[in-house]
């Protein structure tokens, strides 16, 4: 097939591929918050025109990973400490709701997979912990069918990911095992069918990270108020 429809389809596939690659690089910390993303560089790298590049950037903007400024360009999204606190406060409220919707639908096999991920995180380095932690929590939410809550949670995770990396790195340096205990408690509550307790564990788990981030304004390039 040729013509405008085929061209649009090719641009769509190319845009998805570019978005997948750039998303992975941002989440792995290759492009830190505030990094300028140049469309011409992406187009050259992927041997394509700027049309699929623009589609990719719009996709990542909708996911909270990229900030587009009209007539200026694109940057990896960054947060101030106050903005990050706000997003974590939202996460504390809505992720337990999402977990409550998902918990009754988790199969025994899914719970076994969560146990396996929790065990792997206990001995993982900071970067592997981040990857498994994201997989763990998203797996607890996966069965829920939502209109917008699931996408909202993904966007919040994406926007706070870099700062969570800094928190996890610091926690590993001081051998803090609190997160591992939380994961075990969460799976145990889900196995008992106690969605309410699982939601409470999750809320405390998110709040603990928020409070720890508040103690480290230097992560955001800020100084502690005197």
Question: How would you sum up this structure, described in words?
Answer:
By secondary structure, this protein is mainly α. The protein has two domains: 4-76, Arc Repressor Mutant, subunit A (Orthogonal Bundle); 81-220, GntR ligand-binding domain-like (Four Helix Bundle (Hemerythrin (Met), subunit A)). 69% of the residues lie in helices and 4% in strands. The chain has helices spanning 4-27, 39-45, 50-62, 81-102, 108-122, 126-141, 149-173, 178-192, 195-214, and strands at residues 36-37, 66-69, 73-76. The chain has a three-stranded antiparallel sheet with strand order 1-3-2. α1 (4-27) crosses α3 (50-62) and α4 runs antiparallel to α9 (195-214). It is globular, with a radius of gyration of 19 Å.
């Amino acid at each position: 097939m040729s013509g405008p429809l085929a061209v649009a389809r090719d641009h769509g596939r190319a845009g998805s591929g570019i978005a997948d690659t750039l998303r992975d690089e941002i989440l792995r910390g290759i492009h830190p918050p505030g990094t300028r993303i140049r469309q011409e560089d992406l187009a050259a790298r992927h041997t394509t025109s700027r049309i699929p590049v623009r589609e990719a950037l719009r996709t990542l903007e909708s996911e909270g990973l990229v900030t587009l400024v009209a007539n200026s360009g694109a940057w990896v999204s960054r947060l101030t400490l106050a903005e990050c606190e706000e997003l974590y406060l939202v996460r504390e409220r809505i992720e337990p709701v999402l977990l409550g919707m998902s918990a009754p639908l988790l199969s025994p096999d899914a719970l076994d997979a969560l146990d396996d991920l929790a065990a792997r995180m206990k001995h993982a380095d900071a970067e592997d912990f981040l990857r498994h932690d994201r997989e763990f929590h998203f797996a607890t939410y996966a069965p829920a069918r939502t209109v917008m809550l699931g996408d909202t949670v993904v966007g919040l995770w994406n926007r706070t990911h870099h700062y969570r990396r800094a928190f996890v790195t610091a926690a590993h340096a001081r051998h803090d095992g609190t997160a591992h205990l939380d994961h075990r408690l969460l799976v145990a509550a889900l196995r008992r069918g106690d969605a309410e307790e699982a939601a409470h564990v999750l809320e405390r788990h998110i709040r603990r990270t928020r409070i720890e981030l508040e103690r480290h304004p230097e992560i955001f390039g800020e100084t502690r108020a005197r």
